[in-house]
Each structure stands twice: as structure tokens, then as C-alpha cells.
Design goal:
The complex is a heterodimer of chains A (222) and B (222). With 222 residues, chain A is α+β, with helices and mostly antiparallel strands. Chain A is 57% helix and 7% strand. Chain A starts with 5 loop residues before the first strand and ends with a helix. Chain B contains nine helices and four strands; from the N terminus they run E-H-E-H-E-E-H-H-H-H-H-H-H. A four-stranded mixed β-sheet of chain B has the order 2-1-3-4, with helices on one face. Classes of the chains: A alpha+beta (222), B alpha+beta (222). At the A-B interface, strand 4, helix 3, helix 4 and helix 5 of A face strand 4, helix 3, helix 4 and helix 5 of B.
């Protein structure tokens, strides 16, 4: 049996952060390799480790997995965070995809030019408040359960708590119109594995700063 | 029991085409309701049919499914096109995410101004021939089987054929350096359900023309 999953990415959130969240929430310990130079990145491409020459890369169960969603789906399936049947999986997939669309806006935000930043921030706030959060507020209200799907902790819950915290970093009062999401946030934050991940010293990465943006540009852009 | 799946989208390929391919390959008949003007989209939104206010939307098995990947995953799972276990599903997911990334480069082309289009076309050809197609050529070479995963037709094969045909529309001889993909294309195109889908009169949509671009722009206000 292979050891812990091994993650290769930059030392920052980016596309790997959702994977860190999911592994952590599942209580799975993992190792990390951080790309710091273009040469390092070119080396792993040359080694043939990256199927499409891209990271994230997660070495898990004898596979060199790439493509964020493929990795997340595998982890969710393996650790029973993907519902009990095809229909529950469909709901989880729908919720996760919606949240990922919102997270995508946050992902690209640090790379937008200074003059576009205010507009993009407004878009994030608008979409979170009018398109995405109302959906999950309603889901929780309608079934009155603690978790989004099937009365059981799933990938959808992990993705949602990650998104809530990420949006709050940019729009602190974003949950003010969403009492169920406020309660959800507290409940999820107190789940032992998540609580541990939210503490200092965990593998959770801080919000992207100038240094991170520079590193991305240095490594990935020609 | 629910009737045929019903697809809601513009009368165009866009994000719905991969779903049409998958249903057709699985031998599933489906209905389509085309969004022809802004009011059609508004109505779907006002009726509460679109979870995140977006299409594609597919009515299937009592659900109003949204989010392309969620829909495709559900169909693949339901019609046994998703491998036999978690690991096969992981490979299928990785391959599908790759072909999707390639097709996503092609989708916006009709909406781009001339010089951007030319630049992106060159990038598409470069990516197809140096990043994506070599991967699938190698997979087929390494195991010598007819299908990408588990010696059985899966979502990965259907998606790859769709991508090959789409790139060929950009550059007809794109497969010249990939003999196994040429054979794969021939074989897969002759699968009865797929052969039927490739014939005139099927629900397969043609590449975007000027007229459709104008309609889509009007519906989404772009």
C-alpha cells in the first residue's frame, strides 16, 4: 500500500486548495512538494509526471492524478463524501460545480489588472449574494438538515464552507442576509477535522499575496 | 417513470453538445427546447427552473439538472459509461477533463475578433498536437486496446471522438502524426449509436455560423 497522498503545487492556494480542504476534512494526512522555480516545473514535465503538463498533481494510490475535478471526485468517492447513490451524487456535483464557478472568480482575482479589481470585487459580491448563496440558504431551509445532501457530510459541504470563508475574506459581511449559512458555517467550522484545518500550522494556505502572484507569473508564464 | 430527457439550450453546440453526444452514444432518445430569444431564458429563470440561472439544463429522471459536468457525470454513471470502479472512473475523469480543456479553447472562437481568433487557432493546433493528442495516442499504444479505459466504451472515448472531430474542423489533417487516433476515430465513428449521431438529420449541431452567433449574443447580452 502506498503512503500518504503527495501534492505538487505552488506554496499557495490556487487550484490545489480545494483538494487540501477535502483531504483534510476527510481526516487524511498528506505531504506537499512546492514548486518555487520554473526549472523545477520544467523538470517534472520532462519526467513525464504531468499528464497534460499541468499541476495540480496528486500522487495517490499508485496514480499520478491531474485535473482538479478528477482528483476531487476520486477523493470524495474514496472517503465516502459523494452521497449514497447516483442521484445524491448528481446533487453534490451540481452544488459543487456552482460553488467552483464562484471560486473561479476569486481564483483569478489577484491576476486582474489594478483598474479592474474594484469591478471584479463587485462581481464576486453580486454573484455570491444573488446567485450562489441564496441557493444553498434555500436548500438548508427546505430540508432543515445539517448537511446539504442526504443528511450526511459530503464534498458539497466542504466546498461550501471553503467558498464562504474565501468570499468573507473579500466581503466580510457577505452572510448577513443568510442566517442558515451563518449557522452552517459555525457547524462546519466546528467539525473536528475542519476545526483542525482552520487552526494555525495546518496545511491550509493563506490568501494569495503579491509574492504568490509573482511566483505564478515566473513559473507558468513565458 | 419519466419520459425522455429534455434539453434546454440554444440551437447550437456550446456547452450542451458534449451532453448530446453522450446521450446519443448511449442510445438515449431526447427532446430539445431551444432558447431563441432573451425572453425564453428569462422565463426559465423566472419559473425557477435554473438552479444557478444558467443553461445547460436537462430534465432527467425527475430532476432539473444544471452544470454541464454534473449532467454528463450522471448520464455516464446511469448508462454504464463510467468504468467499473473508482480507479477507472478516475482515469475517465482525467481524460475527459483534458479533452474538455481542448474543446473549451474552440468554443469561444466564433465570438472572437479576427486577430484574436487567428492567434487562438494557432494555440489550439499547438495544444492539440503537443499536449493533448499525444497523451491519448500513448494510452492506446500502451495497452493496445480499442477503448481508452478498461477495454470498454466509456465517456472518455465519446469525448475524445467529439474533440477529434472538432479540432479537425479547425485543421483537417490534425491527426496526421497520430496513427492510433486515426484508427480510434474510424472505429468509434462506426459504433452504431455514434454512426447514427454522425449522420445528417441527427440532433448533432453544426459549427456556429454568423446567424447563430448573433442570436446567442442577443440572448445573453454579450
Amino acid at each position: 500500500m502506498s503512503g500518504k497522498p503527495r501534492l505538487t503545487y505552488l506554496n499557495g492556494r490556487g487550484r490545489m486548495e480545494s483538494i487540501r480542504w477535502l483531504l483534510a476534512a476527510a481526516g487524511v494526512e498528506f505531504e506537499e512538494i512546492f514548486l518555487e522555480t520554473k526549472e523545477q516545473y520544467e523538470k517534472i514535465i520532462k519526467d513525464g509526471s504531468l499528464m497534460f503538463q499541468q499541476v495540480p498533481l496528486v500522487e495517490i494510490d499508485g496514480m499520478k492524478m491531474v485535473q482538479t475535478r478528477a482528483i476531487l471526485s476520486y477523493i470524495a468517492g474514496k472517503y465516502n463524501l459523494y452521497g449514497k447513490d447516483l442521484k445524491e451524487r448528481a446533487l453534490i456535483d451540481m452544488y459543487v460545480e456552482g460553488i467552483i464557478d464562484l471560486m473561479q472568480m476569486i481564483l483569478v482575482f489577484p491576476f486582474s489588472p489594478p483598474e479592474a479589481k474594484e469591478k471584479n470585487l463587485d462581481s464576486i459580491k453580486e454573484r455570491a449574494t444573488n446567485r450562489y448563496f441564496p441557493v444553498f440558504e434555500k436548500v438548508l431551509k427546505q430540508h432543515g438538515q445539517d448537511f446539504l445532501v442526504g443528511n450526511k457530510f459530503s464534498w458539497a459541504d466542504v466546498q461550501l464552507i471553503e467558498a464562504i470563508l474565501a468570499v468573507e475574506e473579500k466581503v466580510p459581511a457577505v452572510l448577513s442576509g443568510f442566517p442558515k449559512l451563518q449557522a452552517f458555517k459555525i457547524r462546519m467550522s466546528n467539525m473536528p477535522t475542519i476545526k483542525k484545518f482552520l487552526q494555525p500550522g495546518s496545511p491550509r494556505k493563506p490568501p494569495p499575496d503579491e509574492h504568490y502572484v509573482e511566483t505564478v507569473r515566473k513559473i507558468f508564464m513565458k | 417513470m419519466a419520459g425522455k430527457p429534455k434539453l434546454h439550450y440554444s440551437n447550437a453546440r456550446g456547452k450542451m453538445e458534449s451532453i448530446r453526444w453522450l446521450l446519443a452514444a448511449a442510445g438515449v432518445e431526447f427532446e430539445e427546447q431551444f432558447i431563441e430569444k432573451k425572453e425564453d431564458l428569462e422565463k426559465l429563470r423566472n419559473d425557477g427552473y435554473l438552479l444557478f440561472q444558467q443553461v445547460p439544463m436537462v430534465e432527467i429522471d425527475g430532476m432539473k439538472m444544471v452544470q454541464t459536468r454534473a449532467i454528463a457525470s450522471y448520464i455516464a454513471g446511469k448508462y454504464n459509461l463510467y468504468g467499473k470502479d473508482l480507479k477507472e472512473r478516475a482515469w475517465i475523469d482525467m481524460y475527459v477533463e483534458g479533452t474538455k480543456d481542448l474543446m473549451d479553447m474552440i468554443m469561444p472562437l466564433p465570438f472572437q475578433p479576427a486577430e484574436t481568433k487567428e492567434k487562438n487557432l494557432a494555440l489550439i493546433i499547438e495544444r492539440a498536437t503537443t499536449r493533448y493528442f499525444p497523451v491519448y495516442e500513448k494510452v492506446l499504444k500502451d495497452h493496445g486496446q480499442d477503448y481508452l479505459v478498461g477495454n470498454k466504451l466509456s465517456w472518455a472515448d465519446i469525448n475524445l471522438l467529439e474533440a477529434i472531430l472538432m479540432v479537425e474542423e479547425c485543421k483537417p489533417d490534425i491527426l496526421s502524426a497520430f496513427p492510433l487516433l486515426q484508427a480510434f476515430k474510424g472505429r468509434t465513428s462506426n459504433i452504431p449509436t455514434i454512426k447514427k449521431f454522425l449522420q445528417p438529420g441527427s440532433q448533432r449541431k453544426p459549427p456556429m455560423d454568423e446567424k447563430t452567433v448573433a442570436i446567442v449574443k442577443k440572448i445573453y447580452g454579450i
